[in-house]
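Changelog note: in this version the structure field was regenerated for every chain. One regenerated record is shown below for reference.
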Amino acid sequence: MSQDRFTEVTTQSWGGRVKNSLSGALVGLLLFVAAFPLLFWNEGRAVQRAKALEEGAGVVVSVGAERIDARNQGRLIHLSGTPATEETLQDPVFGVQEQAIKLRRIVEMFQWQEHAQSETKEKLGGGTETTTTYTYSKDWSSQPIGSTGFKHPEGHQNPGAIPYEPAEFTARQVSIGAFQLSDSLKGQISHYQPVTPKPEVLERVKQAQTRPAAIQGNEIFIGVIPSNPQVGDLRIRFEAVYPEPISIVSQQQGNSFTPFMTQAGDRIELLEYGVKDAAAMFKSAQEQNLVLTWILRGAGFFLMFLGLRSLLGVLQTLASVAPVVGHLVGFGASLVAGLLAASLSLITAAVAWLFYRPLIGILLLAVGLAVLFGFKFAKKEPAPNAPVERQG
């Protein structure tokens, strides 16, 4: 067997499985309960955001970036332009300098990584036999990987801490025409491009290191052979955000910006790359809101399904004395959990929408109740045919 591949076989009794399934049921109950406030909050968030964007689209004013009109103080404005800065950002550790909006340092170490893959087989009587295969490979990681927690740490030791921390530097003054970008808007600018280290940067690294160092493309490699890295070798790269056209929707505050508070109770501050008109930006924001809404709906449904499945998993474990019966019960438990989660998710969303958009809420509530009662009636077995009396 390879020294980087190990197999371990463990067994568990039926009683141990029942105990674990009861513990899992408690966790499942918590997940099931947590799904309801998540789904309810998400529907309220989605409606509030949609109303805020509708409100913003109706009051936004498009302006030029070349001059500041004091009459727009406190108003929601839209403008396009190319941000600029006269500052030169510098990494104090490596001496990399760039005239840019942002500069960041990314550090990675070549380390051992553990991978585990398990296969569980049920045995007659309700017990299980689990075969777990541990494999070890070496790869780059920006986070230190603790090898002491490996199942087989022998021969797979990592150095521990990475000697250099990641870092990011942002220009204090970034202008777009006559306006200064706020910190929140600068935070949304993230088109990073690689920076090629200069020879003097490499010399600085060599003076600070006892190991060889070389420039490989856009990276500084610290180690012996770049094409054959060893555990503990480092690679460091730098990226910068340079000026390029952007479009902004935000509230004018003096010669800068601040998020615009709508009457709907949500803040608006939008930034997109390229020259975009206000209508296109608000349409894009509405689409993003819709995508986020469905992602959170899916998360709520999944939490509810997982919670119900964990609760019903106790029945599967009890029936697993005969593996075939356990599998059938498990399939039925998944089906029941899915149907209940779908109907309860719809009902929860409907109740939430009754507070925000009653007509849609009533429709969703009707669909959810139809699914729930349809499932209830489907469980009932048809009554046997009554005997037919014969006429003499």
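Spot check on this record: The longest strand covers residues 102-122. Residues 14-59 form the longest helix (46 residues).
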